[in-house]
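Anyone able to model this chain together with adenosine monophosphate?
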Amino acid sequence: MAGTATAFRTIKELPLEGKRVLIRVDFNVPLKEGKVTDSTRISAALPTIRYALERNAKVILMSHLGRPDGQVVEKLRMKPVAEVLSKLIGKPVQTVQDCVGPEAQTAAGNLKPGEILLLENLRFHPEEEANDSCFAKALAKLGDVYLNDAFGTAHRAHASTAGVAEYIPSAAGFLMQKELDALGVVVSNPARPYFLILGGAKVSDKIKLIDHLIDKVDTILIGGGMQYTFFAAQGIPTGDSPVEKDHLSTAKAVMVKAKEKGVTVLLPLDHVIADKFAPDAQRKVTEKPGMPDGWGGMDIGPKTIALFNEALKKAKTVLWNGPLGVFEMDRFADGTKSVAQTVAGLNAVTVVGGGDTAAAITQFGLADKMTHVSTGGGASLEFLEGRVLPGVAALSK
Ligand code: AMP
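re: yes, here you go
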């Protein structure tokens, strides 16, 4: 079960014909002045919704939006999301003022085959995040069957992601299935050589992932903010770079374990450094690892880029989690960008973990050149750490 080959039911195994199909989607989209500013997540759910509609299902969608913390927050109502969905799918999308209760029940009960209802924000009720069984039952009452297509919240045991599956037949939607299949391959059945690229802010955030994957990978490339803790652990001066002093032993232990397991760890050979953490900082490239006080590491340097790109040429599987530098600032994005271009050009299975790494790859326009870019930050990290995702366990056979 744990982040490996979880046997979960899939959408095609569940008869949907003419049924009320309750679908947990991830419509947690950014809003500005009452308008949806990025509809990627809505588009991502379309294959599942269309598949259900083609089977004459009555489609009932549910999602959370923002953080209303168990209260009704007017500006976090689902109405603007329904409008965007309606445009994308070319059909009216009904809305209601609540996700449970008489109005929702009547609307769900009156749906005709091929019609769509979007329930109100699930997190207006504190019972959603508490996985309250009465609330889960009330949601389950609205559908005959349940599909979960919200991978991004699959690591949370909430009423709409886990609880509801106890009461009606359930399965994973296409988006959930795609995520689990792609991440499942790199966890349980990778082609070799297998490269793990690690970056991001902190080693402490990635230690469970390293522990889980160190037995499986051949080479680990380390960049990003986390590299400086590895250098500090070796007594190399790291200037003003972010170092987790209480994780020096963690970094040392990773190096020892890698050696024991025959895993190659490549650390940077040089750095791009800056005199402050800002886009207009003074910028320099070091000759070798380490830097003086008053300067902090912001990106991997050109020698490191060459080292990483050359090493990656022989990869047959690449898993990447964490940007290699402060890619949000153009002058410190070269490392992440160059390695992304190399990975995108490989004849290999290439999987990018969610969150900031996905944002970087999308920013460089390379998302469609990867085998898979995960949409779920926390969920993909927990999956790769080998943890059971409650939203997936709820769909297990
Ligand atoms: P994470 O969420 O752990 O993947 O961390 C992503 C963040 O790490 C991004 O916002 C990057 O800007 C940041 N990051 C990458 N490299 C560095 C660095 N050298 N110094 C500080 N932050 C970094």
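DSSP finds 15 helices and 17 strands in the chain.
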